Amino acid sequence: MAEQGREAEFREFAGSRADWLRKVAFLLCSDCHRADDLVQETFTKLYVHWPRMRRVENPDGYARKVLVNTFLAEQRSSWQRWRARHPDRPGTDSAAPPTDPEASLDLRQALAAIPPRQRATLVLRYYHDLSVEQTADVLGCSPGNVKSQTSRGLQALRRALGIRSVTATGRTL
Question: What is the mean pLDDT of residues 98-113?
Fold first, then answer.
């Protein structure tokens, strides 16, 4: 009977968080099919460790950390490196076009163009509104690394969007 309670508890958690995790995954990978795969893999990992997950103080934060780490681990795989070099080959489906306004589409395309670690940092800092320290905890790095990844990510995002930066002296970069 305890197993059925565990199953029901997990199903309730997964059902209530699936859409939220899918949005985060889509922001990370810019492909709705890959986002679904990332969420599925995240839920699999969470299910395996559900007894530990039930004792976690912040289950949403834990789930988000598992999702981001799953995404980053996938980016290091040889398959992803091959897909990045051969975007027009079979098996490299692009994302279905979102139904968001054009500005949101431009931002998502620009976000997809920056390196995965910088993308993850920007999503955690600005979409999830996490502090530098919280982001460092999720990514397993130092706060200084989060700051540099955020800075580089914002620069890359501005370049992708064609936005010029203005320095404190008023110079345009």
Answer: 67
E strands present in the chain: none
Domain 97-173 class, CATH top level: mainly alpha
Phi, psi angle pair for 166, to nearest 5°: -115, 130
Structural tokens at position 164: 């010029």
Domain ranges of the chain: 1-95, 97-173
Residue indicated by tokens 């995954």: 25
Joined tokens for residue 16: 């209530």
Cβ(107)–Cβ(93) below 8 Å: no
Q: Are 128 and 146 in contact (CB under 8 A)?
A: no
Q: Which residue has the tokens 């990844």?
A: 149
What separation in angstroms does the CA of 101 have from each of 5, 21, 39, 49, 108?
Answer: 42, 21, 25, 39, 11
Tell me yes or no: is domain 1-95 CATH 2.30.42.10.
Answer: no
Which of 26-35, 96-105, 119-128 is least confident?
A: 96-105
pTM above 0.70, yes or no: no
Please name which of 112, 146, 129, 121 lies closest in space to residue 31, comparing C-alpha atoms: 112
